[in-house]
């Protein structure tokens, strides 16, 4: 049994007064959505044409099932096209769809926080686009309310977005339409950082496994091929070092080329603009173009993340923290979520763009003087790096040794190696910890493999959470979390001293935490006044 | 150094006299009110419903004729641990769990081995859920969840008397709406 009392939208629940006409998706959408069937059709029809006289019942069945699938898909799309209607009234965005299972969705216009435009290559061929309208509000069931219009014409989509976000940002009267102010655009020199990401290695792996899988599927045995045999013979003939070097070089080349291609696809034509109404507009992409608009009041801060290789080169990636952007699924490392502002770029550019995006004179990340964390935090990291990691490595190596795959001395060697890597990493992780208040922002830094620095607007913090495990309690530390509507919903300050952390929370949002901390003076005397 | 930062932050924020207000060293938040006494029985029942069947199943397995002998060792270790967990943690929880609806914010503490406190200001509250599972109904208890716009920060107060919970939800709803009306 459960009762829910919505506090937010109780007072205004009046039906829309002005009757807006319903709009439909674009009919070309039907063509777009069956276009994936073109791929298999080409070889199929080709084969049938070539071998017309050999056509047997097997071929006919394949052809027949193809036609049936195409028909069903087209019919389904036609029904979707006929039953989907949407409109923007004065107060809300409505979408009705479905024939048997009708879904009627509506989002109040003042809760719209982002409008995300995407167009894949087929969409672009037909001049269509998809619009995703997000509210960025998480219900208790933690689902993001959103509404997707897949397949309206590009002009309509742009209009739609302008209408939604223009109103959302609080309408700037009827001035002449000003031009958007460009804040940043991609520079080709940034491409030099592209190969330095984990995705490069993943890309090489994917290519190798993909190729071997393909050969396997086609029934080709590599050892049969003359070229492969020649290459293999040559590799076994030259000294081992040369062979290893050659193979590494080839794999590296493949990885670098792949990451450059991926970089170009993702970031071609990238630019950040501030629209006249104050919304931030980010667009990029070569084949799949995507563009995101975020109303100004939704911007909560930025996150600068610097993986280990980029830290050596004074470069970093920048993401936007904004309500309605980059929740689960779009933020795990390697994927380019809509929240990412720029690819890996030199720190100077990143700081400059931070300042521009947040509309500040200087980036709070550079301005903040971070306060380090107490010594017990270092001890916790050393325990992890020098005891737990070696123990794990030794256990793994020991298991392999017991199975006979490794000699007996593998376990101690693994432990020593892990400890040798773990100690400097632990010290580095401790040095990375820091938090500070800088003007309107709270700045938090942590992490060693990926060092993240978050600058979050103070007034976007919607609550504080503190957590103490048993060992943290013994060490007098806690993990302080500022909850916010943006991004993953929380900014964690790990292993901060208890008193220090509470003072920080109290300084960031005065009068919130202290009354509950057993302040000796009665809390209510000071809190009633605004 | 801490003294200075505190002064600066406080001085900029509001005109509180510097010597009153926040004490220099803040302890972990400790809200004023405890859950209902019946919450202990509720936690106890919950624990027993998990622990007893597991132990019973283990004992049954150990009693079968061709059971391995180490099963008795496992049982000998798990029995005191399980019974201890089931009987002691409810009392420990009762000491840790606290809540309070202050002047500006709701605060709740929870946990036993890992402790947690959460604070949410009234101005950020979006929904208030009161939930009553079958076992809770048996003990006349209720849980209240205060949700904000963040995916990470709902505050849940468990083990409230059900009338008190209803009153709390009503009271909070009124206060939040009042704040909202004259706030913006």
What is the element layout, followed by pairings?
The complex is a heterodimer of chains A (530) and B (184).
Chain A lengths: L1 E5 L16 E2 L3 H7 L3 H13 L6 H27 L1 E4 L3 E6 L5 E6 L5 E6 L1 H5 L2 E11 L5 E10 H15 L12 E5 L12 H20 L8 H12 L2 H28 L3 E4 L5 E5 L4 E6 L4 E9 H5 L2 E8 L17 E7 H12 L5 H4 L7 H29 L6 H23 L1 E5 L2 E6 L3 E8 L3 E8 L1 H6 L1 E8 L5 E8 H11 L14 H5 L3
Antiparallel strand pairs in A: 2-3, 3-4, 4-5, 6-7, 6-12, 7-8, 9-10, 10-11, 11-12, 13-14, 13-18, 14-15, 16-17, 17-18, 19-20, 20-21
Helix pairs in contact in A: 1-3, 6-8, 12-13
Chain B lengths: L1 H12 L24 H26 L6 H27 L1 E4 L3 E6 L4 E7 L5 E5 L2 H6 L1 E7 L7 E7 H22 L1
Helix pairs in contact in B: 2-3
Give Rg of chain B in angstroms.
Answer: 23 Å
Count of the separate structural domains of chain A: 4
In whole angstroms, the N-to-C terminal distance of chain B is: 37 Å
Please state the average pLDDT score of chain B.
Answer: 82
**Overall pLDDT score of chain A:** 80
Low-pLDDT runs of chain A: 10-16, 138-144, 167-176, 327-336, 520-530
Work out the largest interface and the residue count of each chain: A-B, 65 and 60 residues
Which stretches of chain B of 5+ consecutive residues score pLDDT under 50? 1-23
Secondary-structure element string of chain B: HHHEEEEHEEH
Q: Strands of the biggest beta sheet of chain B: in what spatial order? A: 1-2-3
Rg of chain A computed from alpha carbons, rounded to a whole number of angstroms? 29 Å
Secondary-structure-derived class of chain B: alpha+beta
């Amino acid at each position: 049994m459960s009762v829910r009392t919505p506090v937010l939208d109780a007072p205004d629940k009046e039906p829309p007064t002005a009757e807006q006409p319903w709009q439909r998706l674009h009919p070309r959408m039907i063509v777009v959505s069956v276009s994936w069937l073109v791929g298999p059709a080409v070889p199929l029809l080709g084969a049938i044409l070539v071998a017309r006289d050999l056509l047997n019942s097997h071929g006919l069945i394949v052809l027949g099932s193809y036609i049936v699938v195409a028909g069903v898909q087209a019919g389904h799309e036609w029904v979707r096209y006929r039953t989907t209607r949407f409109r923007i009234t004065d107060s809300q965005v409505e979408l009705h769809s479905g024939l048997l299972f009708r879904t009627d969705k509506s989002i109040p216009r003042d809760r719209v926080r982002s409008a995300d435009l995407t167009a894949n290559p087929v969409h672009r061929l037909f001049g269509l686009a998809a619009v995703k309208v997000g509210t960025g509000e998480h219900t208790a069931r933690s689902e993001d309310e959103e509404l997707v219009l897949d397949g309206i014409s590009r002009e309509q989509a742009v209009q739609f977005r302008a209408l939604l976000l223009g109103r959302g940002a609080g309408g700037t009267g009827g001035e002449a339409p000003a031009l958007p102010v460009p804040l940043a655009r991609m520079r080709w020199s940034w491409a030099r950082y592209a190969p330095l990401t984990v995705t490069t290695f993943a890309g090489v792996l994917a290519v190798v496994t993909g190729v071997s899988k393909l050969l396997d599927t086609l029934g080709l045995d590599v050892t049969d091929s003359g070229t492969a045999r020649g290459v293999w013979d040559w590799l076994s003939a030259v000294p081992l070092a040369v062979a290893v070097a050659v193979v590494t070089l080839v794999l590296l080349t493949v990885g670098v080329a792949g990451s450059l291609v991926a970089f170009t696809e993702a970031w071609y034509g990238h630019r950040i603009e501030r629209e006249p109404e104050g919304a931030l507009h980010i667009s990029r992409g070569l084949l799949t173009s995507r563009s995101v608009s975020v109303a100004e009041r939704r911007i909560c801060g930025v996150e600068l993340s610097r993986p280990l290789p980029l830290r050596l080169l004074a470069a970093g990636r920048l993401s936007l923290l904004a309500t309605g952007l980059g929740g689960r699924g779009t933020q795990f490392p390697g994927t380019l979520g809509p929240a990412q502002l720029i690819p890996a770029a030199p720190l100077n550019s990143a700081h400059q763009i931070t300042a521009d995006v947040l509309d500040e004179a200087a980036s709070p990340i550079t301005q903040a003087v971070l306060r380090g964390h107490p010594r017990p935090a270092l001890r916790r990291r050393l325990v992890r790096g020098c005891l737990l990691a070696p123990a794990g490595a030794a256990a793994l190596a020991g298991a392999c040794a017991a199975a006979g795959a490794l000699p007996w001395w593998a376990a101690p060697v693994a432990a020593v190696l892990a400890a040798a890597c773990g100690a400097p990493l632990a010290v580095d992780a401790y040095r990375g910890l820091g938090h500070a208040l800088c003007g309107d922002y709270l700045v938090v830094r942590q992490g060693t493999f990926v060092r993240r620095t978050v600058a979050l607007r103070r007034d976007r913090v919607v609550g504080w959470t503190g957590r103490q495990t048993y060992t943290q309690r013994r060490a007098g530390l806690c993990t302080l979390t500022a909850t916010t509507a943006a991004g993953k919903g929380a900014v964690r300050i790990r292993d901060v001293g208890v008193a220090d952390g509470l003072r920080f929370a109290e300084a960031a949002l005065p009068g919130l935490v202290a009354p509950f901390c057993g302040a000796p003076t009665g809390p209510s005397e000071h809190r009633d006044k605004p | 150094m801490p003294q200075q930062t505190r002064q600066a932050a406080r001085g900029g924020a509001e005109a509180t006299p510097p010597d009153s207000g926040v004490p220099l060293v803040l302890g972990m938040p400790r809200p004023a009110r405890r859950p209902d006494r019946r919450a202990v029985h509720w936690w106890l029942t919950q624990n027993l419903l998990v622990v007893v069947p597991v132990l019973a199943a283990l004992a049954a397995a150990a009693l079968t004729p061709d059971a391995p002998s180490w099963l008795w060792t496992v049982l000998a270790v798990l029995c005191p641990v399980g019974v201890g967990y089931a009987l002691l943690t409810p009392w420990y929880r009762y000491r840790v769990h606290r809540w309070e609806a202050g002047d500006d914010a709701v605060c709740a503490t929870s946990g036993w081995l890992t402790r947690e406190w959460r604070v949410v200001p009234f101005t950020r509250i979006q929904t208030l859920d009161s939930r009553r599972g079958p076992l809770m109904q048996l003990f006349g208890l209720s849980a209240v969840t205060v949700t904000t716009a963040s995916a990470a920060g709902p505050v849940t107060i468990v083990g409230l008397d059900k009338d008190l919970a209803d009153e709390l939800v009503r009271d909070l709803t009124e206060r939040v709406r009042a704040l909202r009306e004259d706030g913006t």
